[in-house]
């Protein structure tokens, strides 16, 4: 069995299973299967098939098996795997950022014999948890240790979703998932149709991950910010770092490395500016902005399950806590308004839906306000929340006079600052009933309860964005109510603002080596570089970049990717 899940809006309760089968072996073992196959009725659908044999085991086991196989080959004497095993000096690699991409890049490189330094501007999960507690209780924002920065990245204090769109049964994804199990994730994530961990499970998992990295020689530097790259003749020689609590950067140090893996998240805006100073090319990337809606979880259970809603029981029942995923494509020709004179095709969709969760603050600057959702493993909160976002592009940035490679970043900041002003400061979030947002009227002082712990303030969120974005949201929310009757409700509360759905830029790199096209020795990976969108895809990207850098450093012969299979090794055949 590969996957199972519990579909919503069904006439009768049933689980749906996805199985992995080898038809040839099955027929050999049971010849009577031919009779069964001959009686199958033709239907329209897709079969997922794999071009390469899938790797088994977690990443650590796979690398260890690879080492054993290489050690047994005579070709090892000509170079390859253990070139540095007998040398006095191992290649030195800096990995900047301890999110999923940074952690998995560090794991691969260290297991293959590199001397790895993992540099993280934030704190380890223990101290990070205390800093987040101070933010939620006393409104003290630590600029370098918060919901965005710190061990595990922004996904640590989120829902811990492990769903991915990059081929969830591919060898690379399975290697990541099994590695998470190795470090403490429950085995059910390997078969759940919508696997998630929750913050409470991620924290001990990350602690185990850290301890393993330290055991294999990784030097982890928490509370150290990379302020600059050391560059000579178009190549990176190392990094300049300082204490992240010291804003003066006076006590910085220069560290020399053979390669630098840049695995920062998309909130590290200072890093973007630093890269621009070195002439690194950026490609503007579309992303999405919007609001976060919250409903009572009982309402979402009722919409999705009808009579079965009573079986949820706060995450301990026979059926899982209900979630939803909605999307509306707005054709530019059919959906053109006076405020959006040039016809633009847009998508409006739910993002990072957190059943049984809460709305949290993800600001990294006290003058800005942005939010996200998070859940614990049981998803037992009274509320369900999700971002409702609209795609935006460079045309939208230019419309508000933002130009250049970081126009998307300035576009985000514009509305984060506006949301902070509408909330009145002190991290209070502007909010509006869903019904009032559609009718463009002030909600008054009486708002539905919110899970956001720093307070909400009634505001005209329909005045937050340019009119064409607001109208796209309003139109889509009305359409969502047809798919989920009851979604437009007086109990539904919109919170502002959601802007950091993905990176606003992409750093061009070589498709095979993962090396920056602008600067040799720099390997941009993960969400901040514009190559991932979630825990699993970021981990896969960091893992693959680690293999490629290891090959470039002659730590391996390049067979590992063929063992794992690249991200898109699966294919689909119509039947």
User: What do the pLDDT scores average to?
Assistant: 88
Note the overall shape: globular
Total DSSP helices:
15
Structure classification: alpha+beta
Cα(first) to Cα(last) distance is 21 Å
**DSSP strand count:** 22
Described by strand count, sense and barrel closure, the largest sheet is: 8 strands, mixed
What does the model show?
There is one protein chain. The protein contains 15 helices and 22 strands. By secondary structure, the protein is of the alpha+beta class. The strands form six sheets. Strands 12, 13, 14, 15, 16, 17, 18 and 19 form an eight-stranded mixed β-sheet that branches. It has a five-stranded parallel β-sheet with strand order 6-5-4-10-21, with helices on one face. The protein has a three-stranded antiparallel β-sheet with strand order 7-8-9. Helix 4 (100-111) packs parallel to helix 14 and helix 6 crosses helix 14.
């Amino acid at each position: 069995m590969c996957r199972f899940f519990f579909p919503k809006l069904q006439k009768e309760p049933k689980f749906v299973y996805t199985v992995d089968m080898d038809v040839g072996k099955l027929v050999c073992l049971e010849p009577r299967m031919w009779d069964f196959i001959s009686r199958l009725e033709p239907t329209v659908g897709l079969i997922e098939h794999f071009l390469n044999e899938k790797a088994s085991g977690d990443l650590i086991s796979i690398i260890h098996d690879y080492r054993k196989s290489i050690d047994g080959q005579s070709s090892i004497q000509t170079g390859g795997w253990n070139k540095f095993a007998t040398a006095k000096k191992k290649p030195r690699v800096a990995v900047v950022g301890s999110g999923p991409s940074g952690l998995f890049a560090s794991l691969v490189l260290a297991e293959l014999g590199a001397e790895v330094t993992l540099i993280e501007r934030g704190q380890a999960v223990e101290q990070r948890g205390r800093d987040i507690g101070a933010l939620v209780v006393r409104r003290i924002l630590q600029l370098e240790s918060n919901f965005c920065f710190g061990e595990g990245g922004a996904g640590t204090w989120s829902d811990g979703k492990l769903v991915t769109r990059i081929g969830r049964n591919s060898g690379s994804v399975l290697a990541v998932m099994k590695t998470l199990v190795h470090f403490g994730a429950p085995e059910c994530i390997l078969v759940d149709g919508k696997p998630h961990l929750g913050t409470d499970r991620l924290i001990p998992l990350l602690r185990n991950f850290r301890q393993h990295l330290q055991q294999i020689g990784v030097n982890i530097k928490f509370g150290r910010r990379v302020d600059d790259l050391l560059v000579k003749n178009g190549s990176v020689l190392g990094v300049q770092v300082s204490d992240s609590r010291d804003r003066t950067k006076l006590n910085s140090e220069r560290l020399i490395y053979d390669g630098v893996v840049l695995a920062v998240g998309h909130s590290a805006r200072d890093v973007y500016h630093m890269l621009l100073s070195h002439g690194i090319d950026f490609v503007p990337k579309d992303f999405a902005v919007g609001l976060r809606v919250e409903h009572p979880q009982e309402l979402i259970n009722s919409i999705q399950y009808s009579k079965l809603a009573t079986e949820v029981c706060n995450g301990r029942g026979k059926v899982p806590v209900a979630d939803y995923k909605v999307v509306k494509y707005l054709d530019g020709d059919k959906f053109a308004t006076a405020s959006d004179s040039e016809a633009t095709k847009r998508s409006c969709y739910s993002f990072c839906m957190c059943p049984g969760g809460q709305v949290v603050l993800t600001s990294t600057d006290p003058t800005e306000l942005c939010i996200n959702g998070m859940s614990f493993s049981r998803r037992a909160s009274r509320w369900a929340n999700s971002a409702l976002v609209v795609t935006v592009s460079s045309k939208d940035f230019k419309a508000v006079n933002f130009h250049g490679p970081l126009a998307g970043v300035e576009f985000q900041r514009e509305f984060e600052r506006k949301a902070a002003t509408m909330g009145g400061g002190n991290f209070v979030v502007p909010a509006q009933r869903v019904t009032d947002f559609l009718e463009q009227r002030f909600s008054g002082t009486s708002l539905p309860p919110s899970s956001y712990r720093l307070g909400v303030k009634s505001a005209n969120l329909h005045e937050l964005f340019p009119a064409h974005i607001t109208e796209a949201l309003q139109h889509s929310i009305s359409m969502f109510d047809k798919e989920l009757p009851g979604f437009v409700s007086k109990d539904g509360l919109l919170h502002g603002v959601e802007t950091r759905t993905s990176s606003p830029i992409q750093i061009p790199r070589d498709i095979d080596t993962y090396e920056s096209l602008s600067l040799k020795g720099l390997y941009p990976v993960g969400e901040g570089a514009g190559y991932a969108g979630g825990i699993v895809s970021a981990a896969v990207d960091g893992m693959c970049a680690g293999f490629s850098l290891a090959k470039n450093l002659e730590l391996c012969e390049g067979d590992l990717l063929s063992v794992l299979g690249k991200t898109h090794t699966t294919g689909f055949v119509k039947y």
